[in-house]
Amino acid sequence: MLRTTDLAHLILKDRLVAGAVAVDATVGNGHDTQLLAQLVGDSGQVFGFDIQARAIEATTKRVRGLAQVMLFHAGHERLAELLPASVQHNLSAVTFNLGYLPGASKDVVTRTQTTIAALEQALAHLVVGGVVTMVVYPGHAEGAIEAEALRSFARKLSSQFAASWFARSNGAAAAPELVVIERLV
Description:
alpha/beta
């Protein structure tokens, strides 16, 4: 079975080329950050954000030696503030894997308010043809709230963007879901 994260990775692989600029808005254990770095190559740039020191440490170890990666121990809602001016309005992809850090406290989760703020900033800095992927976990209380808020947000986007929502049609109601937003113009 194709996992939700695998689908997000397929989309990122389709959009990112050598020299591109990408953001991992929730670095977690660094798997997405590592993938982005491989896709953009040595000539590209990857910026990663996480509020948990444990996540930054794990990702630092995973991407050791990859000079194209810069990590910020900061919330994703600070994306526009912390991105270097040279890459602002030049993002080819931004990826979010929401919820909580696997293996860490489930009390520390992404929050709807900061996620929406980060998404608004990501969309403002996305190039035409650029994409945002968001893996959402509605199986916990905050995740369900976040998922509904993101659905509402996506429905209200202007025609500059195309938004798609991927969810299982059968089985567990709490299965991860994927939001994909592409900048058209």
